[in-house]
Q: What sequence folds into this?
């Protein structure tokens, strides 16, 4: 029962949409080379950015946590390891009151408007999409993790659990 998160973890993407007369965005099906260069540079320097701006490190940690939670549920790891997560899942008799903050449904993008020869150009930036299911679906075996895969000790199989804090 061993998994390892590997790779960049965060990839910055860009997309080009056209705004019709009705105000709705329509995919332009083309890539703006300047926007792609910016997105690629942000991706390649994300570690540096996360080191200087904690919010970007926090973002990566939230993405990783989402992938790990999905992996635990999808692979039934808690059950396979004999680990009772009912307290964390909120389905136990323990009166645990975790801090709860409102989850935004959306975040307003940052926009800029530039008047060009062909008319106005609107640049809208922002948005985060985490598809943890896709990451978990694309997992692959790594023989380097084989030494970490061990059977559960008999004490755990027998129901004797230990805790630490």
A:
């Amino acid at each position: 029962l061993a998994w390892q998160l590997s790779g960049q973890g965060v990839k910055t993407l860009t997309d080009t949409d056209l705004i019709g007369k009705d105000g709705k965005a329509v995919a332009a099906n083309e890539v703006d080379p300047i926007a792609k260069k910016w997105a690629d540079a942000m991706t390649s320097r994300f570690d540096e950015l996360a080191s200087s701006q904690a919010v970007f490190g926090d973002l990566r940690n939230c993405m990783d946590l989402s992938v790990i939670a999905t992996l635990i549920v999808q692979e039934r790891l808690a059950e396979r390891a004999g680990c009772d997560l009912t307290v964390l899942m909120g389905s136990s008799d323990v009166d645990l009151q975790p801090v709860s903050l409102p989850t935004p449904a959306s975040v307003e993008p940052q926009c800029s408007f530039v008047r060009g020869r062909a008319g106005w150009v609107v640049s809208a930036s922002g948005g985060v999409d985490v598809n943890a299911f896709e990451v978990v679906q694309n997992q692959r075996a790594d023989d380097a993790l084989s030494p970490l895969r061990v059977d559960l000790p008999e004490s755990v199989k027998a129901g004797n659990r230990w805790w630490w804090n």
Strands lie at 17-19, 25-27, 110-116, 119-125. The mean pLDDT is 80. The radius of gyration is 22 Å. The first strand starts at residue 17 and ends at 19.
